[in-house]
Design brief:
The complex is a heterodimer of chains A (about 300) and B (about 525).
Chain A: H1 5-23, E1 27-30, H2 35-48, E2 57-61, H3 67-80, E3 84-88, H4 90-95, H5 99-123, E4 127-129, E5 146-149, E6 177-180, H6 188-198, E7 209-216, E8 219-222, E9 237-242, E10 253-256, H7 262-272, H8 289-296
Parallel strand pairs in A: 1-2, 1-4, 2-3, 4-6
Antiparallel strand pairs in A: 5-6, 7-8, 7-9, 8-10, 9-10
Chain B: H1 10-13, E1 17-24, H2 31-41, H3 47-60, H4 78-83, E2 89-94, E3 98-104, H5 111-120, E4 124-130, H6 137-148, E5 153-159, H7 168-182, E6 189-194, H8 218-224, E7 238-240, E8 243-248, E9 251-257, E10 262-263, E11 268-272, E12 276-284, E13 293-294, E14 298-303, E15 314-317, E16 323-334, E17 340-341, E18 345-350, E19 353-366, E20 373-374, E21 378-379, E22 384-397, H9 404-407, E23 408-412, E24 419-428, H10 431-434, H11 444-451, H12 468-481, H13 491-494, H14 506-525
Parallel strand pairs in B: 1-3, 1-4, 4-5, 5-6
Antiparallel strand pairs in B: 2-3, 7-15, 8-9, 9-14, 10-13, 11-12, 11-15, 12-14, 16-22, 16-24, 17-21, 18-19, 18-23, 19-20, 19-22, 23-24
The chains are: A alpha/beta (about 300), B alpha+beta (about 525).
Bound molecules: guanosine-5'-diphosphate.
């Protein structure tokens, strides 16, 4: 009897995580509370059961996530028995960086890109797991599972290693670090299917419900708290919406939907067939902007 | 919240099998167009990307405004594309029955390193050729490389059939030519398909323009083929221990991915290389204990006895163990700008174990275009050779041709940490066992005792002219004056005698060091 595609993807991710646990000096799992992070965390628990995963969770916070995300984050930390580290770039806190006054590019760069580098340096983590997948974007198709970063956290295309069989070379020079992507070979559909079959907890925002939104620059933005300044003529309206990806609430577009079960969401996905990242405001800044962000150290 | 199970979840319950394949072709054979067609045909390309493709096809396409499927594959910006050294892209699509992982490698010069990387995880290979050109040198090269990596099923796609009027004669001539050549490569199966990637003939559906062709379309083949998987050839348990799970004193589990065979509680297993035998107590998972686990699964075993097991050990079926040895013959594919040198030692990662390997003679390298064997003393980037390896300790292994995971390895440079080579073990050399080490009654300790001194080697390194000889000479004089027995091996002096035959090429330098180390070792022993 040969295994199903999900069983094989699961085994591959577990193998990658165990390899890191065995060879890294100080690994960490980046936890962004989205569905991919949720699947990754679940795989980590399976990899080390009955022990809890032998590394902490790190949330690089921007203070602008949806409230429901913070709730799930704290609950999962409790449930898994893992240590949760939350890092907020102190400079961004001091300057009150936000997407409204500073724009999405600066906001993301300072809170996330800089915040991540600071956190890795502060704790001295040498390996960080991330939930990115190769199918997310064309430029990710060539990304390795073990992606090497210089001491300045830059991704250097010349300095990536061939990955043969199941063999990963995890040796690195002092100061270098590695980003490891156990979900590299998963597609969005694989992740949804796995979440469904395994009953993995999700932020309720993935499921449709009546929520207050305004239409802004072509996107439906949910008014999650009273920090969001409304423009002239904007009044929040209740609409049945859900999210395909989750990030900072002012930067994440919702889709109108009534799908409140996973099978419903999948059916909508198959009919609409719009790519996942469309809802993310940051991707539209400039062509090949994801690629550039990667070079700069944003995941 | 946890996703609730509902009655209408057919889409989410389907389980698929997984097929990994790689694609090889030279520039302009139409590989990108073909893969683009497969992606679109399987429906994985979202509507917004299809719209973008239409717009791009009009703007920059090569098909006069028609859809240019190849544009779907452009990833990194061109400038980035130039710099990337390891150029393998992974793409995904799925049908009702299967998920596919495609390892796509470009046809340019770095082909060997990239193609070998892509093929190492593949079950099947698609080799493209242009119908106007037939079986070319590169077709042979691609086929040889994938056969070397143990691929059992080769699919020859004869593309651009539209340019030869879908001629059956052309197709048959190329097919016959290919089958004759491929005989020596030992594939388990070869399928040859006439295709026009731009027009879509025989890509997703069978084409009416090739009524003479009775076989499957490429997609039909991929969707139904049962690969004769090299990994399945060994059916006895092999489980490389990856992680020892020890949360508290009451639990001691051994975690790893099964790379051959199956395991059940109660099975008698052997721990290699030590050879100790014990029984499996439980197969522990978060979903509850399993009654059996099979190749591909990542599991945790508990054992009946408190035997010594650590990361790097191999758990095997007790009565069909792997071989244990420290000298091998192997095929090595060189992947680094700095050449492989005889006598130099590298780190070798095989399974979950890392050992030190020294390359003893390189027997020959293979001309990948003609398959001719050529004598050599080094391997350059993208060269393939057969050599002997000597390890610093014994390991358990199987020949690569019966199991990829217990017979495949990578070589790592100890200074740069780069992955510099990949290899496949053939068999163990019995030399170490045959030439028994002459046990001597008067040993190192006894000799040291009569001298009343501790044997010790001081090695001076530094650039030429840095003052090594001067310092060494002073130290030597001082030790001598303290009544210590010393000897100074001067690098230049050694080159007058022992190493007279060596020059200053990289290979000779390594040999020079190797000989001096051996002499030094004898002296320390003496
Ligand atoms: N006539 C014809 N042209 C083709 C066919 N397949 C690809 N091409 C053209 O050949 C050129 C190279 O194709 P591409 O897919 O980019 O090749 P790659 O370099 O192998 O990826 C492009 O101009 C394609 O449109 C085919 O079946 N028939």
């Amino acid at each position: 009897m040969s295994l199903t595609h999900l069983e094989l993807l699961e085994a591959e991710a577990i193998q990658i995580m165990r390899e890191v646990a065995a060879e890294a000096e100080k690994p960490v799992m980046l936890y962004s509370i989205g569905k991919d992070s949720g699947a990754m965390l679940h795989l980590a628990r399976k990899a080390f059961y009955p022990a809890p995963p032998p590394f902490p969770l790190l949330h690089v916070d921007t203070t602008w996530k949806f409230r429901e995300m913070y709730e799930l984050r704290d609950r999962m930390a409790k449930e898994t028995g893992m240590e949760l580290l939350v890092h907020k770039n102190p400079e961004a806190v001091a300057k009150g960086i936000n997407p409204f006054t500073h724009g999405s590019a600066v906001h993301t760069d300072v809170w996330k890109t800089e915040g991540l580098k600071q956190a890795l340096d502060k704790y001295g983590f040498d390996v960080a797991f991330g939930g990115a997948r190769r199918d997310e974007e064309k430029s990710r198709a060539k990304e390795r599972v073990f992606s090497f970063r210089s001491a300045q956290h830059r991704w250097d295309p010349k300095n990536q290693r061939p990955e043969l069989w199941k063999l990963y070379n995890t040796r690195k020079q002092k100061g270098e670090s590695i980003r490891v992507f156990p979900l590299s070979n998963w597609t969005e559909m694989d992740v949804w299917q796995y979440i469904y079959l395994e009953g993995i907890p999700l932020v309720p925002l993935y499921f449709a419900a009546e929520r207050p939104v305004v239409k802004r620059d072509g996107a439906l933005i949910m008014v999650d708290d009273d920090r969001m300044p409304l423009r002239d003529g904007e009044t929040p309206e209740m609409k049945s919406i859900r999210f395909r990806t989750l990030g900072c609430y002012p930067l994440t577009g919702a889709v109108e939907s009534t799908a409140n079960t996973l099978p419903g969401i999948i059916r909508e996905m198959q009919q609409a067939k719009v790519s996942e990242r469309q809802g993310r405001v940051i991707d539209h800044d400039a062509p090949s902007s994801m690629e550039q962000k990667k070079q700069e150290g944003y995941f | 919240m946890r996703p609730q199970r509902t009655a209408d979840d057919a889409d989410l319950r389907v389980t698929k099998s997984l097929l990994r394949f790689n694609t090889c072709g030279s520039v302009d054979d139409g590989k990108s167009t073909l893969i683009g067609r497969l992606l679109v045909g399987s429906g994985v390309i979202p509507t917004d990307q299809m719209a973008a493709l239409e717009a791009d096809s009009k703007r920059v396409g090569t098909r006069g405004g028609e859809l240019d499927y190849a544009l779907l594959l452009d990833g990194l910006s061109a400038e980035r594309e130039q710099g990337i050294t390891i150029d393998v892209s992974y793409r995904f699509f799925a049908t009702e029955k299967r998920k596919f992982i495609v390892a796509d490698t470009p046809g340019h010069e770095q082909y060997t390193r990239n193609m070998v990387t892509g093929a190492s995880t593949s079950d099947l290979s698609i080799i493209l050729t242009d119908s106007r050109k037939g079986v070319l040198t590169q077709t042979r090269r691609h086929s040889y490389l994938v056969s070397l990596l143990g691929i059992r099923h080769a699919v020859l796609v004869i593309n651009k059939m539209d340019l030869v009027d879908y001629s059956q004669d052309v197709f048959q001539a190329i097919e016959a030519d290919y089958r004759k050549f491929a005989e020596q490569l030992g594939f388990g199966a070869i399928t040859v398909i006439p295709v026009s990637a731009v027009n879509g003939d025989n890509v997703i559906e069978r084409s009416t323009r090739t009524p003479w062709y009775q076989g499957p379309s490429l997609m039909e083949l991929l969707d139904t083929v049962e690969v004769d998987d090299a990994r399945q050839r060994l059916d006895a348990l092999r489980l490389p221990v990856q992680w020892v799970n020890r949360p508290n004193l009451d639990f001691r589990g051994f975690s790893g991915t099964i790379v051959a065979g199956t395991v059940r509680p109660g099975d008698e297993v052997r721990i290699q290389p030590s050879g100790k035998v014990t029984k499996v107590s439980k197969i522990v998972t978060m979903d509850g204990p399993l009654e059996s686990a099979t190749v591909g699964q990542a599991v945790t075993l508990t054992l009946a006895d408190e035997v010594d097991v650590s990361r790097g050990d191999l758990i095997v079926k007790a009565d069909s163990p792997a071989e244990v040895a420290n000298q091998f013959e192997a095929t090595v594919v060189w992947m680094n700008e700095a050449p492989l040198l005889r006598g130099r030692s590298y780190l070798m990662k095989i399974g979950t174990k890392v050992v030190t390997a020294t390359i003893s003679p390189i027997k020959h390298k293979v001309n990948v275009n003609t398959l001719e064997e050529i004598a050599t003393s080094t391997l350059a980037l993208n060269e393939i050779g057969v050599c002997n390896l000597e390890l610093d300790r014994q390991i358990a292994f199987d020949p690569y041709k019966v199991n990829r995971d217990t017979g495949g390895f990578i070589l790592i440079d100890r200074m740069t940490n780069d992955t510099v080579g990949a290899g496949m073990l053939h068999f163990a050399l019995r030399r170490a066992q045959n030439v028994h080490w002459q046990a001597q009654d008067v040993n190192k300790a006894a000799r040291a005792a009569i001298k009343g001194q501790k044997p010790c080697l001081l090695w001076y390194t530094g650039l030429s002219g840095a003052g090594k000889s001067t310092i060494a000479n002073l130290v030597d004089k001082r030790l001598h004056s303290m009544n210590r027995h010393t000897y100074l091996l001067d690098g230049d002096n050694v080159r007058h005698g022992l190493n007279k035959d060596l020059g200053f090429t990289a290979a000779d330098r390594v040999e020079n060091i190797r000989r001096i180390s051996e002499v030094a070792k004898l002296m320390v022993d003496a």
